[in-house]
Amino acid sequence: MRIALIDGSKHSTVYSIALLKIGALLKSQGHKCKLFNRLPKENIKYDEVWISTLFTFDIPYVKGMIREAKKRYKVIKVGGIAASLLPDKFKEENVEVTIGRIKEVEEFAPDYSLLKENPEYSITYLSRGCVRKCKFCMVPILEPKYERTQNWEKDLYPGARKILFYDNNWLAKPNKEIKKDTEDLKRVVKEKNIY
């Protein structure tokens, strides 16, 4: 199958690690994937369109994208943070909604070859969730269990000299874990010439 992976963030300045990992999973299953920031304008037929959502304020934008996509594509899937927090907003568009993380995806390294050019930075997580349960925060809803990320180094792009960490609250970790992370980071910086 041909699958278009679309970043539904209207104003995002970073690429989606989730879509890069989903692309890796789908390619491992024999599918052909291409990453887009908007709906594809090219005439290539796609069997499925997968749209990621990030911010809830982008919901009207993503819903407009869905309506436009439905004119050209039969199967549209939506996932990500906004879709997980407010799934009914997307279900009313009659699309398949994925709520929460796809656990199987976490085992894959991001497929950076989906990007148009080599990335300047890698993206990873040292942990998921948060040790705090603040009532105003969505992290306990999205990632209710705090857990250290195992094998996070697989997410690093070999040529990138910077790392962007997507941890929700790294400094809230127990001191023992912060020390372990710091030692791991020192080693990785030295080994991979990262600054």
Automatic annotation (TrEMBL):
Cofactor: [4Fe-4S] cluster
Alphabetical keyword list: Iron, Iron-sulfur, Metal-binding, S-adenosyl-L-methionine
Single GO MF descriptor: iron-sulfur cluster binding
UniProt entry tagged with the keyword Transferase: no
Protein name as catalogued: B12-binding domain-containing protein
Source organism of the structure: marine sediment metagenome
